[in-house]
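Bug report (template v2)

What were you trying to do?
Predict the complex of my protein with hexanoyl-coenzyme A.

What happened?
Run completed; filing so the output is reviewed.

Input:
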Amino acid sequence: MKDVLVELERRRSTARQGGGTVRIDAQHKRGKLTARERIDVFLDEGSFEEFDMFVEHRCADFGMENNKIAGDGVVTGWGTVNGRTVYVFAKDFTVFGGSLSETHAQKIIKVQDMALKNRAPIIGFYDAGGARIQEGVAALGGYAEVFQRNVLASGVIPQISVIMGPCAGGDVYSPAMTDFIFMVRDTSYMFVTGPDVVKTVTNETVTAEELGGASIHSTKSSIADGAFDNDVEALLQMRRLIDLLPQSNTAEIPQIDSYQSIEEPDQSLDRLIPDNTHKPYDIKELIQKTSDEGDFFEIQQDFAKNIVCGLGRVEGRTVGFVANQPMVLAGVLDSDASRKAARFVRFCDCFGIPLVTFVDVPGFLPGTDQEYGGLIKHGAKLLFAYAEATVPKVTVITRKAFGGAYDVMASKHLRGDMNYAWPTAQIAVMGAKGAVEIIFRKDLDDPEKIAAHTKMYEDRFLSPFVAAERGYIDEVIMPHSTRPRIARALQMLRNKTLSNPWKKHDNIPL
Ligand code: HXC
């Protein structure tokens, strides 16, 4: 008996060594943790249960039959984050560059299937070179099986990808189908084909960072939902994110103790809107003053900053915040902002997370640049997302809600449940200047008349009261009472039941 126990321990310890100490040292030298170290930081201490530690590849080409490493380049299993079950897989770059073989794929598929069957989130830590080149189509088939499961699990359980090293080929497509992608600055890259292939095909000289670094994907391409300075920070932030997410689309949203009163008014909000309506202010201040203890997990912080999206809590329960940001492009809706917010709204709706929307939007961005880029279709994505969402929707218009953007931003007409406005709200087809120039064009040469028309337009339309008179705004509220009003609205909406007509699936304008 003793010999078998010793043999098991020996096998385990060999498997834990992955590609060996030289490659582990190289991994550390690059500022990266190993797959197992990442799992250790991410999960509750001692909670990790590993599967398939002894799995090896079955490839017999290119001398691979003599080169087998237990685990085959990916560490899989489950554990807990603050007591809640999470399935994990971490690519082991020290073993064949974390590349995916047939058996490596089967290990991932096993945890994907378990996560879906048992309705718990799944997170992948990526550091891998794509399909195992020596395996050819067996590896390609393995990827497709992983992709298929990504799709089936989409909207059922949260799926998160963290890019922690160079990732190419299939190792970028699977993350692309998950709910969120995060990257580590300076050590991680994502591209379909790397700089060498780019040079051969297009004759373009580009570095890995320029092609697919965190700096590109979190600001330009919007592939990444966030970037962190190092592995440990990324892993700890993923614990924070998991804490905010429900286990599945049928599970309750998580509730934790909250310490900040929901009755206390915040007088500072009465001074948030500047006297000059053209002056910007930071909408994040309002989000932070609404969310418990000011805690806010922002998504795509560095992309389309004219709209702010992220998760927080009210009375201990998770809420999705969407807010126009007057500090950037006056909070205008353009294609990027619309796409960003649409995806976030749909994520929240999938998982039953109530939406709180703060509106200060001068409209959609005009111009050929936007129109040629498909603004109509991108804007429609956000409109579609809000209109189909059945989760509780609480909206507060703080200042401008002009034109189509008024409709889009979770208005009453798109089944907004509680639509509030601050007294500073201006709800109209457009701002006074543009409106007067169109409807009083004949008086444009007479500044006095134009001033009088402008004053009349401002008095009549640039307030929340025309909308409130029609019931499009449920109540005009004091800014200082925003958090208490939102908290009460969310309490009232806890048992909201609303469903859309049966359909196979919708046809959102992609
Ligand atoms: C087998 C691989 C591998 C792969 C890396 N390795 N990628 N082995 N298949 N795809 C091995 C290397 O041989 C090496 O082994 C070790 O991993 C580390 O690789 P290095 O090149 O030394 O590391 P580095 O310089 O950091 O470069 C990392 C890399 C590069 C950028 C990922 O290795 C690379 O470009 N690999 C190929 C990427 C690629 O084109 N993959 C196929 C994509 S097609 P030793 O023994 O020396 O440690 C694809 C199809 C699916 O994925 C598409 C679905 C839609």
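What did the reviewer find?
The chain has a mean pLDDT of 95. The pocket of hexanoyl-coenzyme A is lined by residues 23, 96-97, 99, 129-133, 140, 143, 166, 168-170, 173, 194 (CB under 6 Å).
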